[in-house]
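Data availability (excerpt). The following record was deposited with the supplementary files.
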Amino acid sequence: MSNSPHSLYGAVEAGGTKFVCALGEPGGRLVAEASFATTTPDETLARVADFFVEARVRHGAVAAVGIGSFGPVHVRRGAPQYGRIARTPKPGWEGVDILGEISRGACAPAAIDTDVNVALLGEARHGAGAGCDDVVYVTVGTGIGAGLMANGRIVYGFAHPEVGHMHVPKLAEDAAFAGVCAFHGDRCIEGLASGPALRERWGTGAENLPPEHHGWTLQARYLAALCVNLLVTCAPRRIILGGGVMMQAHLFARVRMSLCELLNGYLDFAAYGIGLDELVVPARLGGRAGVVGALELARDFATAG
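Predicted structure:
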């Protein structure tokens, strides 16, 4: 496939709560956008198809569509289950061929990846990771997930990484908290530091906890432990922390301080020309990272051959 550099591409941010559809140019302007609640597969994917039908009428053919999907989702191209939702607690969605349905509805070729990998692509090219080839994007919200980029390429194994279920040491002062992960309880970072974990532990959401609340000290320590594991495993030049919980600007200084304490001088960042303020950073694109990244995914797919 080959396309004009001015081709229009489609983007679908397929979230567990809502879908966002867009049409535009990678890294540039959007010419159409719509969002709606995630309901049943039939209803939701029909609305996606309706969006692209109208988009074709108004703006012409779509060169390709990039999809960032909630998961787990099969993302290995060429695999029999590629593009299908894997085992998920979301009723009715397991096994749905989300890639095929959207591609047919848009009358365009399509590629799919996880929502966090697509957000990583957006942040790496147009946001807080621009200029770096080795980047990790972590979203801390309803769940915790991360996308890993090494040498400019997103990292996969037999499936996409599930960083949110990385086991981290539980703090002694947090012993009474049972965690919220349905699989690991209080043994993984999602069970200890996601938005629902904060709400369960403190009885209110992250947005209602004042900066001086002790909960942020615990949160910073858990996120710092996650960052340590990412640093010694992947050695990224930048760790981008996004998602609703990370809207607390004061949290970043706490995470960096806890990171230094946990590393205890082990990594000599200065020798690599890295400052902590540029190592652990907030997301720059905010809620737009998914759409921006999906447009990039569409262009990559369309121009690959």
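Summary of structural features: The chain has nine helices and ten strands.
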